[in-house]
Amino acid sequence: MGLMDTLHAVRARGITKCFGEVVALDGVDLDVARGQIHGLVGPNGAGKTTLLGLLLGLAVPDGGRLEILGTPVERALAVPDGVAGFVDAPGLYPSLTARQNLAALAELRGLDAGSAGVDDALAQVGLTDVADDKTRGFSLGMRQRLGLAAALLTEPRLLVLDEPSNGLDPAGKRHVHRVLTRLAAGGTAVVLSSHRMDDLEALCAEVTILATGRVVFSGPPNKLAAENRELDYRLRTSDTAAARRLADTTTGIRLVDDTGAAGQDDQLIVVRGLVPALDELVANLVRGGVAVRELAPVVSPLEAAFLALTEQQEADK
Amino acid sequence: MTATVVEDSVAIGPRVSVSRGYRFELVKLVSQWRVRLLVLACWIAPALFVAGVGQQSTLPSDTLFGRWMHATGWAGPLVMLGFAGTWALPLLTSVVAGDVFACEDRLGTWRHLLVAVRSPRRIFVAKSLAGLTVILLLVAGLVVSSTVGGLLAVGNQPLVGLDGHLLAPGDTAVRVLLAWFAALAPTLALAAIGLLGSVALGRSPMGLLLPALVALAMQVAQMLPLPVAVRLALPGYAFISWNGLFTSPTQLGPLLIGVAVSLVWAVLATALAYLLFLRRDFTNPAYDGAGRRALTVGLLPLAALTAVTVAAVAVATPSLGSGIKQDKVQRSLATAFAHLYRLQTEQLHRPAVTEAQLRASAACTKSDGQDAQEGAGNDWRCVVTWHLPGVAVAGTAVYQLDIGSDGRFVADGDGPKEVNGYFLVRTSTGDAPNPLWQFDGNVELLDTTSKG
């Protein structure tokens, strides 16, 4: 076993998976280091859930090589101990309470979780107050958090989550982000899929973009943004007229007539350009005595890159 | 190389034991409100029903042993068994076994369960055992509740058997227990069919309904004029053949064949469900039942089993017709009459007689002798003749018989009035039900039992 194998929680090379005539994964490579949060992005049907299912051991690839926690996976349900998570949705039983769901699962897996372990997992995801409520009445966000708590019971070394941010309110999102960040800091590798680009940008050290079963990008999100084309930015200043004038005169910056992004806010303008040109515009605003109150991309860099790459893939098809 | 193998075997995650999986499945089943409701109903409702009927003037005389519910508490569990074989057990197995796999489809929890347990084989065993446990709990409730209700409300008196002879309470208790044990075999067959439907049809409601539909089909088949070999080869026959435990001698042949057939069905249907379950692709989110495979792996082997069983029973037993022959009807009626005549004699405080002294015989004709003298129907007319010590002239009484295709009959007395023509007899303590007026009997369809 090489050093790279011990450093990687997931190492996939040339993974293919077909369902009848449908090619779900086509030569996918994936490396996830221990202690890394890795995002999977892709349009519906790109193969994200299939890939997550392989990581959980629900199936084996038809071709290629997959190693999880340093162990080759050669048959279904034979992934190493320490892999936890869910695909599609967390498996919860509506006739049981949140606490009973976790306690039954802990007993099933022979975990020494006890009531303290269950309570701790519930507290980590912020569900202590509803611990004794039946999960039948849980919202999607609460179900996602309980699914995460179930995974926490096993103290995983590889955590696989399928769209864990679905349905989360801001408080729930904060709980989930905190848990994932703490797990990663403790050496747990986390692989998660999401359509929430802001979540991925906030959490992930690396992302992999899948389109029609193939990897179209893999690397840090900032590299993706840097490689990308010009972005639209919302700019709010103390003097809109002056800001318009300065934007018009800054090289590489164009004013965009985007009423959708600016809305009815007459203090807001939308400008388009690369990051260096944007830096120049900010410097010009400051020199001109115009205060910058807000500067943010209309669409996140990752989302823009995602749209560009997947649209390109569709066009190539 | 050796080191790698050892390392791999250590690295692979441990599988969950069957016992832990069983407890997990049991927790899930018992947490469902409908299962709790069923358990509660099975442990309470029979006692209330039996006790309630025991207090009413009208008895369910169309149900086997129903006419004796005022006479002994032991009639209660047998009436309940008749009802359970027709309605309760098929429905209970539908709700429990028919849903044990399908519920995971409905909840979308298969992947979660597989990741946790890591063995479809163990999941299957754990689920099957948990379902079986709940079904046994429900059946135990039916038996205990109806027995306790009957004994408390009516008492621990002897039971009149299907050939009219009195069974002592201890003997009756054993036979009641054996009858319910016998009924467990077709219950297991229905449960296995439920498992098969639950695996093969996924979230489709048809999976849930399958045991009830199969039970209904079996009941319809038992009402048809089928040859004995076909009747005995159907898995529901043990719901009927327990009747033979309440005759003397016991009609063990049909009972054992019925139980054996049911158990073979239970084993085969469970094995087929197991095979279908292991072949299922759990990664396919669009799975909605096994489709064509359910037909080839599920239905065809069971159809083949039916054909093989019919052939085996036909070869093993000489009865190929209806099994209801004139001589057997006459013998059965005469035997029951003799036993019940003694009972009436005792009621009326007449001098005691034995069956041997009575030398009762019956002469029966069907359709006034116009058609073949065999088979089910309500057109059997019999004249029973008996003798009393010291009386030169033989007594005669007329009965109309309604014989079902399963061999069970109701004999309806047609006079003379002082023997069997009126539903009451006048005793020294007041009017009492006349045991010879109407009674149930049973014609054994096979020729296996020694003549008693």
UniProtKB/TrEMBL annotation, chain B:
Keywords: Membrane, Transmembrane, Transmembrane helix. The chain crosses the membrane at residues 33-54, 74-103, 124-153, 173-196, 208-234, 254-278, 299-321. This is ABC transporter permease.
